[in-house]
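Researcher: Here's my situation. A collaborator sent me these components and asked whether they could plausibly form a single complex. I don't have experimental data yet, so a predicted model of the whole assembly would be a useful starting point for our discussion.
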Amino acid sequence: MTLTSYLKDFEASAANGGGRPEWLMPIKRGAIDRFEALGFPDRKNEDWKFTSVAPIARSAFSRMAAGDTVPTEADLEPYLIGPPEWPRVVFVNGRFVEALSTVSGLPGGVTLGTLADAMAEEPEFVARHLSHTASVEGNSFTALNTAFITDGVVLHVEPNTVVEHPIHVLYLTDARVGEGATYPRTLVVLEHHARASLIESYAALHDGVYFTNAVTEVSLEAGSRLDHYKIQQESEQAYHVGTLEARQERDSHFHSLSFALGGALSRTNIYTVLDGEGGYVTLNGLYVVHGEQHVDHQTSIIHAQPSCTSHEVYKGILDDQAHGVFNGKVYVHPIAQKTDGKQTNQNLLMSPRAKIDTKPQLEIYADDVRCTHGATVGQLDDQAVFYCRSRGLSPAEAKTLLTYAFAADVLEQIPSRPVAQYLERLVMERFLGSREG
Amino acid sequence: MLEITNLHAGADGVEILKGINLTVNAGEVHAIMGPNGSGKSTLAQVLAGREDYQVTEGTVRYEGKDLLEMEPEERALAGLFMAFQYPVEIPGVTNAYFLRVAYNAQRKSRGLEEVDPIDFMDLLDEKLKTVDWTAEILERQVNAGMSGGEKKRNEILQMAVLEPKLAVLDETDSGLDIDALKIVAQGVNNMRRPDNALIVVTHYQRLLNYIVPDYVHVLVDGRIVKSGGKELALELEAKGYEWVQEAGAVS
């Protein structure tokens, strides 16, 4: 696979002011070297066995041009969640749109802003955290994102501070300016006993072929709690690779939901290391795809310290010829006694041509642990469809109800009611749309 | 209301119903009794429209329409209700939601506006009394995690909400203890009106002490071999099915 165009784009970017700030340059240089050495993963790579990224390599995306038109509040409407007082940070084609963002009204001790500003104003803080949790070593896409860091979002919450409203970050793409790539970078640092919720939406203002390569780094200090929602509703012609890496100190809580609806090809990685006693993580996911979409999730939970709990439920609804992939790894270190780990992946195939490759993996090196995992693949139950019809529901209504029921436990576990309602609506709309189509 | 003429039906090429004739008028309660494998449940399923069974001969007319030409949901919307022998579990959907969706499907088909959850709760309060239940059951998932008795009671709650013209109870008594049986029977009796009708499919006479039929039909090997009044059920209980099987062979 050819890397040349990405390497050239990097040199062009470095020469054209993309090298700022100066102190970041060695990191970016190191990352592009790493990318060059790794190349794009092929399917011989165990982590990419069921997903070919050849279309991304072949398309040779260069950095996305700025949009021609300034988006309006109305353009944003389909992607907005919750009441207006929720803080909001909007990017279009990788550029911050100040007019659509509202970051005021946050309590003292909370810093929310762009990565570009933070790199200029708080270089020491950023340098301490950026490219520390997300490793470029074995991950080509994290390396590529790191090489192209220009902007993104920083959320920093000081000790014992609670951010009341969820913060909504929208990384939007307007593909009317032609093909291209964006490299959003998000940095979340919650100091001890801080608490916040963050929503990351990835969506298209106008459909088209483009590539989003996103990286989010999360640092959770002792006793902190982050509720994180990733909502991927990219254009169905687009490519999306997003990695979230978290490191959790003792007694911290991390609740992650990955929702995937869009993209021709999407891959989401959610990785966390439970690096202190008493840590708690929930990784939940829901993917709903149709047509010829390909959706891939890889999760990793490393129990590196004793007495931590991890719960993971990923569910998939696959229609038409869609292809889903789930690979969930739970690794229990020899010292991680009293680990409690549960992992399940359940899939609903709506069509005989839909396909799922699922691979839950458990590696346990401690003896006093309680861990379970499992995967299921099934179809809508004909008996249940008939039962609903015998109560007066049409076949389409019956299927919608049962599909919704399949996804319900993941949606019902969402602590934020507006987020749950928003996702319920997306699932219903997608499903009714598929039925009519 | 219902007129079954020479109905033959089966599954996977095996004939189970071999010429059923039965007429049910408004206001009547018919009991269909028979030994295991006689085709009682098949008859109930065919009436509800289960596609696993194929009708090979005969007609079924319901309120003057050809029932066999109607989809299962069209039958339901036309006022036919079957209480399932094995109610299906739907985890992830609450009873309250399911009842409302079903109720609104009926309203829509009659050109009426759908009811919102709050107004619907008022209606449910009334219906819950029919089966001697409290609102707590509404937040439970449809049949999932319910005992056998609760599932049967839940079927009767659905029936109370949907107010069918013709209800077919498919072995609703099986798996019920005597207290649950009385509650279910009481619920069904509360719904009896001159303009609706009931078909009670059962193996045992027990339920018929509480839901008293006008007619009893005995089904053996896919045919009705004997019909009579409610006293026939008692006779069957005393003499066993062998008695009619022999009688059937003679006739």
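Model: Some features of this prediction you could bring to your collaborator: Residues 417-436 of chain A form the longest helix (20 residues). Chain A has a mean pLDDT of 94.
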